[in-house]
Write a structure and sequence with these properties.
The complex is a heterodimer of chains A (99) and B (623). With 99 residues, chain A is mainly α. Helices cover 61% and strands 9% of the residues of chain A. Chain B has a five-stranded antiparallel beta sheet with strand order 1-5-4-3-2. In chain B, strands 6-9-8-7-10 form a five-stranded antiparallel beta sheet. Classes of the chains: A mainly alpha (99), B alpha+beta (623).
């Protein structure tokens, strides 16, 4: 494996799109995470013991759900970013962004 | 506890550590430049980097600390798993690609890319050092914990062994070897944790948990005796001392401690400076069991459930009729004034075991603040950890930084799901060391045989090695690259910069060894929670505002980092955990009841940045 100097990656025409998408998805996850925290705080833990499905309580289902949701959102984000990068790839020539 | 590894386990352990050292030496030959030393030349494949992220991140705190906390406190430990993983969302969606675009070697490069300010270089380098050292303490502590039962060596020897090995790794190789060590370790940790959980599911749950065996084959599990005060008096016991619900009795000059629980009393384990369970050469016995399995009779419970799947395993433990013995500890001064640590059982229902509220209660205002504060720090801390941030510079492009983060989320998320099973399994499997719950997951492995124990312990040890190596590379980068080369403008050559980094690695390693010994016995995940709080307070406001607020100025960033560090550390150092722990006093002596600083220090750091930036706006060209 090659271990040369760190490389500059050049201009990225999709960066604006990716940045906005990232912030949007971050806000969605943030709200769901806050929902977990405040459900526990506001009900003094009582809501967390409610059995939700298959003998599992809200604490377990919500907690596991947050972990799984993170991966699902990450995959969606990567899919959309990769698609945009491919779409925008043709707009860059010799390091210059064509208008 | 006096559990010792077998010769086979010591061979497996030594072979694993030897392999790690060989990898370091092998890649050392390839890291001659500063880019090679600090950023592996920016040429690591994103998939390898993703698993290495997992290796970096799944530190002693994740494997030892979370499993230990779940084993003793139930669901509360799992809150760390949720928060640690959620933090990667911040890293992926907001930080990963911009950090890669802006930086070269270190997090300071990225922060300073726009301003070229000496103040930012200094503040960010100090922040990197402080966070790295906060994070190093629990790793070193965990290493000592592991070595005790595996090699039969004292805790402090374990800390020194890790320190010496890691200093050797970092001083010889840098980021390339650290990356491959992390890749190997991260992969093995996932594989063998999965195997451990499969074994656990196949064994199922039983009220007759298999006991760990001592050196001479004796059964070590501690089942607390039950009695009433009157019953003890009738047997000839004398009550020597009472402190709240704890009483010290004596029978035939042999002392014992009991805890009142309703009408009944439970016999506790105890330890003074010279005696353990009443004997000068005594030992603490492993604990933790399920007393009643919901929906099963006592006879059925003793026979066990047989094979379970992950959902039925959790459902059995959540059942309201399930009763689980949780183990806690407290410190009491007896009638002679001697400080005694009491380890006592508390039987809780499955309902209480499987919801938050044992350690992180949310009844009072302060408790609610503490809980919100913890979850806030875990969420915002990940994307601000210097040893995680530097890994964005080991891949060739921002797209690779993104993809490696997604691999990391998949690997880390899967592991955190496993922690719930490993922790709960250890908690009901008679595999908790009451004095140090950090060993719960390796001891759970021991209940399945010495080979699995040796492999899991070796991986856990390598976990510590890898994480400590990553932290020391980050810290040495802060000193040599950010401070010496850029802040003091010493204009170091490539060779001198690498040499300076190695000297810095040596010094930081020594500091970590000393602190690792001082913080013995404190849950490592709890300590890492503080490192997250300091990182989230000092670094994240600066990173986010730099990316998303055009009015951010260099003085604003410097002030924000400074206020973040001081406020977070100040709240921790004057808080209850420090008074009850290292200061040797009680939690009530603390200057305030807030155990977690994030709820105050993170907003304060943001606010400081905004105010100072608005006060230091550059004058418009037209003026």
């Amino acid at each position: 494996m090659h271990h040369g100097p760190a490389q500059d990656s050049g201009p990225d025409p999709a960066s604006r799109y990716k940045s906005r998408l990232g912030v949007g998805m971050f806000i969605v996850y943030c709200l769901i995470y806050a929902g977990f925290v405040f459900t526990n705080v506001l009900t003094e833990g009582q809501a967390m013991q409610i059995i939700v499905v298959a003998g599992l309580n809200l604490a377990v289902v919500y907690g596991m759900g947050l972990i799984i949701l993170a991966l699902i959102l990450a995959l969606i984000y990567n899919y959309l970013c990769t698609a945009k990068e491919k779409e925008m790839a043709g707009t860059v020539t010799d390091g210059e962004v064509q208008k | 506890m006096n559990l010792h590894g077998t010769p086979l386990s010591i061979i497996i352990f030594s072979a694993f550590v030897g392999l790690v050292l060989y990898l370091s030496w092998f890649f050392a030959r390839k890291a001659k430049s500063a880019a090679g030393y600090y950023a592996a030349g920016g040429q690591i494949h994103w998939a390898v980097n993703g698993i290495s992220f997992a290796g970096d991140y799944l530190s002693a705190a994740s494997f030892l600390g979370i499993c230990g906390m779940i084993a003793t406190l139930g669901y509360d430990g799992f809150l760390y798993s949720i928060g640690y993983l959620a933090g990667w969302i911040v890293a992926l969606f907001v930080v990963a690609e911009p950090m890669k675009r802006m930086g070269k070697f270190t997090f300071t490069d990225a922060l300073d890319a726009k301003f070229n300010s000496r103040g930012i270089k200094l503040a960010a380098a100090i922040s990197t050092l402080v966070v790295s050292i906060c994070y190093l303490i629990p790793q070193m502590n965990g290493a000592g914990t592991l070595v005790e039962p595996l090699l039969g060596l004292p805790h402090w020897v374990g800390v020194i062994i890790v320190g010496v090995i890691v200093i050797t790794i970092v001083a010889t190789a840098g980021m390339t070897s650290t990356t491959y060590v992390q890749f190997l370790k991260g992969g093995l940790l996932l594989i063998f944790s999965t195997i451990l959980v499969i074994f656990l599911m196949v064994r199922g749950i039983s009220t007759e948990a298999p006991s760990l065996q001592g050196d001479d084959g004796q059964n070590l599990h501690y089942t607390p005796a039950e009695a009433t005060h009157e019953g003890l008096l009738a047997e000839g016991y004398l009550r020597l001392h009472q402190d709240g619900e704890f009483s010290k009795y004596s029978l035939n000059n042999e002392a014992s401690w009991w805890k009142q629980d309703g009408d009944m009393m439970w016999k506790c384990q105890w330890q003074t400076a010279t005696l353990i369970n009443g004997k000068a050469d005594g030992l603490l016995y492993p604990v933790g069991r399920i007393k009643t399995i919901g929906g099963m009779t006592a006879e059925e419970g003793a026979k066990g459930t047989g094979r379970l799947n992950p959902i039925t395993f959790l459902a059995r433990l959540t059942h309201p009729d399930t009763r689980i013995e949780q183990w806690h500890k407290t410190k009491i001064f007896d009638e002679t004034g001697e400080k005694t640590t009491i380890y006592y059982p508390k039987v809780v229902s499955g309902t209480d075991q499987m919801k938050p509220g044992v350690k992180f209660k949310v009844k009072t205002g302060w408790e609610k603040l503490n809980f919100i504060s913890l979850m806030l720090a875990l969420f915002f801390g990940t994307a601000a950890l210097p040893h995680i941030l530097i890994r964005y510079y080991t891949v060739p492009s921002p797209a690779c930084a993104r993809k490696s983060t997604i691999v990391a989320i998949a690997a880390i998320g899967f592991f955190y799901v496993l922690t719930l099973f490993m922790g709960l399994g250890a908690g009901i499997g008679g595999t908790i060391n009451p004095a140090d719950n950090n060993m719960s997951a390796p001891l759970l492995a021991m209940s399945f045989g010495g080979v699995l124990f040796a492999i899991i312990s070796a991986i856990a040890f390598a976990t510590v090695l890898g994480t400590v190596a990553g932290l020391i590379v980050a810290a040495s980068g802060a000193v040599a690259h950010d401070l010496m080369d850029r802040f003091f403008q010493m204009d170091l050559s490539e060779t001198a910069k690498v040499k300076a980094g190695k000297v810095a690695a040596f010094v930081v390693g020594i500091i970590a060894i000393i602190l690792g010994i001082v913080f013995r016995g404190v849950n490592v995940s709890f300590l890492v929670g503080w490192a997250f709080a300091v990182a989230a307070s000092a670094n994240l406001p600066a990173i986010l505002m730099l990316l998303f607020w055009p009015k951010t100025t260099a003085p604003g960033i410097v002030a924000s980092i400074t206020v973040g560090i001081i406020s977070a550390l100040g709240i921790i150092l004057t808080g209850p955990a420090m008074f009850a722990g290292p200061y040797g006093m009680t939690a009530a002596d603390a200057l305030h009841p807030l155990g977690q600083p994030g709820i105050i220090s993170i907003p304060l750091s943001f606010l400081t940045l905004v105010v100072v930036s608005l006060m230091t706006q550059p004058k418009k060209a037209a003026e």
